[in-house]
Amino acid sequence: MKDTSIRIKVLKDQLLENKREISLERANLYTDSFKQSEGKSSILRRALATAHILENVNIAIKPHELILGDRTIKPRSGIASPEMSPYWILDEIDTMYSRPQDKFYFTKEDKTIFKEKLYPFWDGKSLKDYVDSKMSEQVKQAINIGIVKINQTDKGQGHIIPTFEKIFSNGLAFLIDEIKDKLKTNVENDFLHAGLITLESLKKYMLRYAHLATTLALEESDYNRKQELIELHDICTKISHEKPQSLHEALQLFWFVNLALQYESNASSISTGRFDQFMLPFYRQSISDGIEEEYCRELLRCLWLKMNDVVLLRSEDSAKYFAGFPTGYTIILGGVDKAGRDATNELSYIILETYGDIRLPQPNIGVRIHEKSPMEFLMKVAETIRLGTGIPQVFNDEVIIPGYLNRGVSLEDARDYAVVGCVELSLPGKTYGLHDIALFNLLKVMEVTLDKHKENITSFDMLINEIKNTIKEYVKYMVDGSNITDAAHGLIAPTPLLSCFIDDCVAKGSDVSTGGAIYNFSGVQGIGISNLSDSLYVIKKAVFEDKDISLSELHHILHNNYHNNEIARQRFINKYDKYGNDIDEVDYIGSDILSYYCREVEKYTNIRGGIFQPGSYTVSAHIPLGEAVGATADGRLSKEQLADGGLSPMVGRDKNGPTSVLKSVSKLDNYLTTNGSLLNVKFSPSVLDGVEGLRKFVNYLQGFMRLKIQHIQFNIVSAKTLKDAQKNPLKYKDLVIRVAGYSAIFVELNKAIQDDIINRTEHGM
């Protein structure tokens, strides 16, 4: 195919060349619609607002594009959602371009529009207003002291995988007709009316691009580009009602649906699912029809670039927890099929190879491995990881599928799992999981427990029991806060278009936010288990066994942040064993506490009739959550970061090599963390040199799989390179590295996160 490399280079350069701006276009259109829909139900108002956006938002077709559609005309713009919360935007309107992380430029004109039009309208009417009015004093106290962090109180929910197979198999017209038929016997159902409004506006949105392609084709002097524009017109026209047949048609329909879902809720992690499975028939059909494989690859590269155009605007506080724009276009490859057979196919390999051609943070590719995974595929995975972008991450069928069975999921559905956002496990097209609704700071639990009971605790077992009692108390507050936010989304921010792509919503006549999905989970993360293990082991030895110090004396030292006690701090760091080194006595402390946390969480049900399920991953929250915790007995100073990842050892404490890290993590009950867990491992680039290096790395992956650990991801980049990127950011503007359950452009991260990544132990093998 002529000029494919030129096409991708031009599109990639355009993506990264300009500063990120704030776009108020969606906010203005959304607000204009709401002003006209007073008196209607919330779900109808949301649908009418989405339709107004899709029918009026500015659209463009750039030179060289083969996949059409952008959220904004200017690349990588941040979209404001004042209907969720206008308050933080007003507070930060003058600091968004100077804040430490995820900066955006806010024009003077848009600042005036926000202050004079948008803020006055949404003041008192937003999702945040409802959530704040319902939070109890106990929940607020749990948040304020730093044990509980409730998410999604001021933004769209997302964290879901739509079912694309239904529209691929039947076409958009089928979905529209299905709702029309349902309305014949449910004429009063506002959800069905809302779904119909949004689906019909999606059709109009596609036809707007068809018309624009024709207009541009008439003006185009280059013959090859004219033919591309004519073909794009035909594709957009066809998929506005019919099912796709070719790969190009399927990819374009896929992207239009994704954009429409973004316009509806402006939410993170509306994820992709098992892309190599549902796109395979269209790839094979295109090859059968004589389309060159290289052209199919070029289409995929164009889609990957589109995914990187979507960056999410978050508050300064939220950006600390989700630094580097983790949009969550997560693709999962490989794994078993619904019958338990290996599902790896030719598209699995092509996706990895085309990602290697663009090397940007999105798509956030993950692979599923199992006992039957082909060696050829594992080698291809290793080759892609060797590129150093932290992609793909690896998930383990051998523990995740049984874990889902423990949650009441059918075997067929469990085998079809995929991933949303970072590492959150989900069931495509069947789950509304609120996967990132809350964080639970386990290390802060220990601090609160010691503050309250230091004078009364006389044994290590007594300390453990008091920590468990504190966990039990605060898990309830976390559940209460999560359910309040859950209810708020159902009342204030339903998503009827998204619900049309989730099984059973149309059949039930119910939005996903009010229980329409088949599976209704709420996911909450327990964070800090490695620091907690290390700290408790020091206390066990130094206080209760060796009796070198009393608990009250230790508490005094910690309360004063090791002031004039640096010798004691170094002793705590260096004398006592640490989690991550395959030492049972340390590792089992963490296993016991994490299992207790998981058992407490799973006792609760949410307002949609589903269960709460625990996970253990941090995104980039290990830094701000660390700011909430004073000095700890593992030698960590007040406000210093927690261990990264979720299950990873504390920075610099894993001394016995990467296999020992796996063995420590395997002692946790990884069947319980069904919302997802995260393990970061950093290798020296030389480890993967040559075919022999790749084979050793594959052996390591197989060891991970057989040890029944859920997830692992890698940074294969030297500390020397990262330090140079810190000093010379212009030389490394597209250097992509792994942060947590996602990758990001290194120079777009603040220094604290950069330093954390640099300081992670760089293993050999």
3D structure, described in words:
- The structure is a single chain.
- This protein is α/β, with parallel strands linked by helices and 765 residues long.
- 51% of the residues lie in helices and 8% in strands.
- The chain has 33 helices and 18 strands.
- A 6-stranded mixed sheet has the order 4-5-6-15-14-18.
- Helix 3 packs parallel to helix 10.
- The longest helix is centred in the middle third of the chain and has 33 residues.
- It is globular, with a radius of gyration of 26 Å.
- 57% of the residues are buried.
- InterPro entries: Form_AcTrfase_GR_CS, Gly_radical, GRE, PFL2/GDeHydtase_fam, PFL_dom.
Note the main attributes of this structure:
765 residues, alpha/beta, 51% helix, globular, lyase activity
The number of helical segments is: 33
The description of the largest β-sheet is: 6 strands, mixed
Q: Describe the strand arrangement of the main beta sheet, using strand numbers.
A: 4-5-6-15-14-18
What structural category characterises the helix and strand content? alpha/beta
Q: Would you report the number of β strands?
A: 18
Average pLDDT works out at 95
Shape: globular
Q: Which stretches are poorly predicted, pLDDT < 50 over at least 5 residues?
A: none
The Cα radius of gyration reads 26 Å
Instruction: Calculate the terminal CA-CA distance, rounded to whole Å.
Output: 41 Å
Q: Percent range for helical residues? A: 40-55%
Domain PFL: 6-637
GO molecular function: formate C-acetyltransferase activity; lyase activity
Pfam family, one: PFL-like
Protein name: Formate C-acetyltransferase
